[in-house]
Amino acid sequence: MSTSPLPDMEEHLLRIAEDGYTVLENAIEPDFVSEIDEALLKLEHDLSIVPADNLFEGIHTTRVYNLLVHGATFEKIPVYPNVLPVVEGVLDPGALISSLSSIAIGPDEQAQPIHADDQLIPLVRPHIPIICNTMWAITEFTEKNGATRLVPGSHLWPEAPNPLERYDTIAAEMPKGSVLVWVGSLWHGGGANLTRERRVGIAMNYCAGYIRQQENQQLGIPPKLVKTFPRRLQELIGYSVYNGLIGHIDKKHPAKVVLSEEEGVEMVWDLLKV
What we know:
This protein is α+β, with helices and mostly antiparallel strands.
């Protein structure tokens, strides 16, 4: 896949550390943006997707979850070379896919409650990054059409937001084909759409290899399908072992046990052989 050069890594990682987020402008190849848009429209039609009935997901917002089971187009997203290295820089190469879904904010949608993606995890704040999420702009993101709202620096605060309260935010405006990357502790939420057009994004979310994934990838994606995925995508789903310990099956690599692949992994306790 032809892509433009990855923007300066250290600069983006510094922005994420200090502000909680960064924007990778024009990181996605235009043809791939169009491919995603077309595949998503077809999928929404074929699955008869309708908005939810709660204010968090949005009553004028359509979402499709577990996108990895819906075709080769979506399989390219988690391993996209202009985005994944930034996520690995925030977490580490042992990161996992937490969830992959679409979020299409329709006209007349109100702003989503401000929240942090890690606030249901019982850890004292602030803490090291355990979640790193990305929002792919399949359409332009503007303040008027529902661009993600952010509270810069809030990932460093000692408390999580109250979804019932209102906060001062900024809009993460970005051109079509750009990617917003933020750490899971950052306070944020989808914006209100005051236009007549949909604001379409792909929520490609990752977590540390030692954190439970938001979507259950191992049960949600049939092993028969996983066998067709490239090795790196299999690892990101969870067919991997983190730091020689977390994720093994009876001291065996899960890819070997479940996918019948030849995998060797050094377990942490093997380092203490007599």
